[in-house]
Amino acid sequence: MSAPARLAVLISGNGSNLQALIDAIAANQLNARIVLVISNVPSAPGLTRARVAGIATEVIDHRNYWERALFDAALAEAIAPRAVDLVILAGFMRILSADFIRAFADRLINIHPSLLPKYPGLGTHQQAIDNGDTEAGATVHFVTADLDGGPAIIQAATPVEQQDTASSLAARVRRLEHLILPLAVQWCCNGRATWRDGEAFLDGQCLPPGGWRYNPADQGVREES
Ligand code: GRF
Q: CA triplet 197, 201, 205: central angle to 5 degrees?
C-alpha cells in the first residue's frame, strides 16, 4: 500500500465531519493521516476531537486579521511546512481568497450541505423545504473561486419528508456527509478523483454536474448505525 496521504482539515465548529475522517482512518477505510487541524474559532468543539485523536491543532482566529488576504496568508503559512497532499474544508465558515485557492488548486475540497448546484451558501435545508424539493443532500466538490461552485466529486441524497424541519433534515443530511467525505478524500488521495479544465473526473470519466451519485455499495464506506 502506498504511503498514507497527508491531510489538513479546516473547521469552524462541531467537527463531526472531521470525526468521520478520523474514524475512517482508524477503521482502515482511508489511507491517510491528518497532520493538522486548523480552526478559525478558538472554542470550536472540533479542536477537542482533534486533540483526543492526537492530531496537531492550530487556531487562526480571523478576528485578529484586518483583511482576508492576511488571514489566508496565515493559513497558508501554517499548512506549508506540513507537506500536505489535500486540504479539506469541513465546516469551515470563511470564504477563502482567490490567491489561497490558486495556491492549493487541485488539492482543496469542500463539503456542502446541498445537492449542488442547488443552494450554494447558507440556509440550504430551509430552502429545500420552502421550495418543496422532494430530495436534499450533500456534495463534496473541488474548490474554485466560485463559492460552492467548483466541480462536484460526489453527492448523496435523502428524501425530504412532509414533517421535516431544517434541523431534522440537516441531521439526516449530516449522516450522509459522514459517508461521502471519507470516500471523496480516498478518491482524491488515490488519484481516482481528478480535476481538469473545470470538470471533475472519476477513474478518467467526466462526472456529471452533481458528481458521482453515492450509493451504499460504493467501496470503502460503512453505513452508520
Ligand atoms: C456541515 O453540514 C458541512 O456540510 C457544512 O458545515 C457543517 C459542518 O458540520 N459546510 P461539522 O462541523 O462537520 O459537524
A: 115
R_g (Cα) of the chain, nearest Å: 17
Residue 4, C-alpha cell as written in the block: 498514507
For residue range 124-155, list pLDDT tens digits in order.
Answer: 999 999 999 999 999 999 999 998 999 999 99
209 CB-side CA count, 13 A: 6
90 lines ligand 1 (CB under 6 A): yes
Give 28's contacts (C-beta < 8 A, 6+ positions apart): none
Residue matched to cell numbers 450554494:
120
46 CA: nearest ligand 1 atom: 12
* Ligand 1: centre distance to CA 178 (Å): 10
Q: Is 125 a catalytic residue?
A: no
